Amino acid sequence: MSVTPVSRPAKNSDRAISLPAPTPTPTHNAHTTPAVARAATPRYPRMQALTPAYARYDYAQREIAPILLDCMLGADWRTNHAVADRARLAQRLFAASQVERRQCMVDLRAFYSRPRSTGERMAAYVPLASELAHAALAGSLASAGRQTGLSAGALTDLIVVSCTGYASPGLDILLARDLHLPQDLRRLIVGHMGCFGAMVGLRQALAAVQMQRLMRPATPAVAALLCEEVTSLHFMPTEDQEALTSFALFADAAAALLLTDDPDATGPELVDTYCVADFNTAGQMSWNITDEGFVMTLSPRVPVTLRRHVEAAVDHLLTPHGLTTNDVSHWLIHPGGPSILDAIQGKLGLSDTQMAPSWKVLREHGNCSSVTILLILDELLRSGQTHPGEWGVLMAFGPGLTLELALARF
Predict the structure, then answer these.
(1) Which residue in 110, 101, 109, 105 sits closest to 134, CA to CA?
(2) Cβ atoms within 10 A of the Cβ of 165, count?
(3) In the predicted model, is pLDDT for residue 41 greater than 90?
(4) Partners of residue 47 on adjacent β-strands
(5) How far is CA 130 from CA 11, 285, 294, in A?
(6) Does residue 7 fall inside a structural domain?
(7) Which of 32, 33, 114, 215 has its CA at a distance of 20 to 30 angstroms from the CA of residue 322?
(8) Number of structural domains, the chain?
(9) Do 223 and 278 fall within a single domain?
């Protein structure tokens, strides 16, 4: 197997994106659509300085399956006819993921040359997660400094999202110390909520900025959202098909953005959020902590459940703003897997073009859990396909079964 090291995460700050200029407030005239005119008056916080950080090792998908099979079936699985059918099944699951490349913070073959306990995995998590998280947040702050002159001392809130490891002091404290953030910084960790964790983080950032506007209007809030995941720490030898499906999808990354009430800020407005869960289907997705690592289960019923609820969830998000799905130009859908993307596209009647950023991130980076939705936003903004006044919906899913959505205006 050939493992190609990629740039260290600290260099990913070069990917910090300069987001578009603020959307002018349109006046209602014959050329202004009713949807834009109705929603043009309020001023909403803006996202800026979105910065992804990618992991050390870049693997082709075809390189990862043999590593797992060595652990699962033994190093002789290629010539051992007794395990041939089991090997083919695992290889089919990896091919069906439609992931072409993934990035990991660990050298998979070296790290999994022997069994690893949860304690060993958590000991590795702290330095690996800190490296990724530092690269993303430092890059975001540097980008904002170049754009608006903002300094790290201006941060009022820090929200850290991760479901792949735990430590105390946590990443919120370590990052605040290493990046010299204010001592009175309001900190929050969102843990173990899974792939929709970034959406919860956005919701909390929005609440923090709006509360600051109400309570301390003289000082605009600047909330930093940092999502970081090291899913590669949780590979394990198993032939459970749900677990194998997750091993075929997940990868490592981090991303950070700032949400601010500063009138000079640039980037998309974060207008609203909505959350709904079908608690009767809670067993369809889980993320359990065991003595041998964290174990994901992902039922094939998940796309069915999402298809049943997604249309109503979108209506609840859009209707208060006088919008319908036809008013939304951009759809950022978390790629929990190909069948999930297909289910959402079919139910909402989305075009291939609207789904393209989600598919591209899945192909090139896999499912990076909570980080993924921010990678899709980064991909969309870099594409140059957004225009002032256009609406976008961000959507992610996770245990519950939960749908989290956010409404943005570019």
Answers:
(1) 105
(2) 24
(3) no
(4) 259
(5) 14, 27, 19
(6) no
(7) 215
(8) 2
(9) no
